[in-house]
Amino acid sequence: MKNIIFALTTIFLLGCQNKKEEEKVIIEPVATFTGQQVTGVTVSTMGRVFANFPRWRKGVANSVVTLNKNGEPSPYPDTTWNSWEVGQEVKDSVFIGVQSVIAHENSLYVLDTRNPLFKGVVDAPRLFVFDLTTNALSNIFTLDSTTYYPNSYINDLRVDAPNHTIYMTDSGKGGLVILDTQTGTSRRMLDDHVSTTAETDHLTIDNKRWENTVHSDGIALDLQNNLLYYHSLTGYTLYAIPTNILRNGTNDEAIAAVRTIAKTSAPDGMIMDSYGTLYYGDLEHHKINYLDKEGTQHTLHQGDQINWPDTFSIYDGYLYYTNSRIHEAQGDIASLEFSIYKIQIEK
Q1: Cis preceding-peptide flag for 77 (omega within 30 of 0)
Q2: How far apart, in whole angstroms, are the C-alpha atoms of residue 92 and residue 192?
Q3: 72 vs 158: CA distance, rounded Å
Q4: 55 neighbors 98 (Cβ within 8 angstroms)
Q5: ∠ CA 189-193-199 to the nearest 5 degrees?
Q6: Do 257 and 241 touch, CB atoms closer than 8 A?
Q7: What is the pTM of this model?
Q8: Which stretches in the chain have pLDDT values below 50?
């Protein structure tokens, strides 16, 4: 009898503890978009929230928006930049196929794949840089022709300001692209390497098979240890490489320097905070996980409010993320809701 009472007490206490831990996680809605598939989110040092919508189909209202305090979007920097439609002239004063936005210091970096509808690159992929004080265009970085392919989809980026470098992933054809912001030149590294190519041709989400092959995608920068972390989307291995090798080494040196960090879930978005914690999604199980400095993996949260966590941004103790619902967004998406949430990671 004593053993039974002890067991029941233990179960009760564990249940209370788990409930208490779950109650510590605070998730808040930031914005919802009906019929407009959001992939990217970023928050500036001043708390301005920006989001982007890729041109994976016709009918994209805006490529880049800024959100007010109520989560209502306005085209950024204006309507003209967001006015392009499929079939119109491609030029340097409009967004064509934006996949990511990153606010860093006082600039907004807008990554334009120039690959609308996944039908191939129509122009060199580029980064548009906007001054967040004036909202004016301050720079355009155009990738060198040797750094991308006709089927490239330059997906995500991280800004290494101390070293005047931007690192990017190519999810269309596995590889990393390194941009020197002082010279404007770019180079491609680890092209078709095992670390930048997909490990599988499908994921299983909600007991349904999502068939696709997506190469190097998620990317995170560790400035303290000068490491770049990266991961294919349809894959389960996290890799890292010293950033000085990417900037100054040969491709053979880069291959030799690749580190296998851990076997993980299949993620899309990744980000590292200032404490050395790496956050990443688990697309197949509606989770956000994290890897601590000791190399131990944890689950931050799991639930219906996590539905293909695509992109992460950190601001004021919160992890912002988009739910792009890629596995569900087939055919007509007019009635589908896509969202941005923030989840508390610091007390």
Answers
A1: yes
A2: 30
A3: 27
A4: yes
A5: 135
A6: yes
A7: 0.93
A8: 1-22
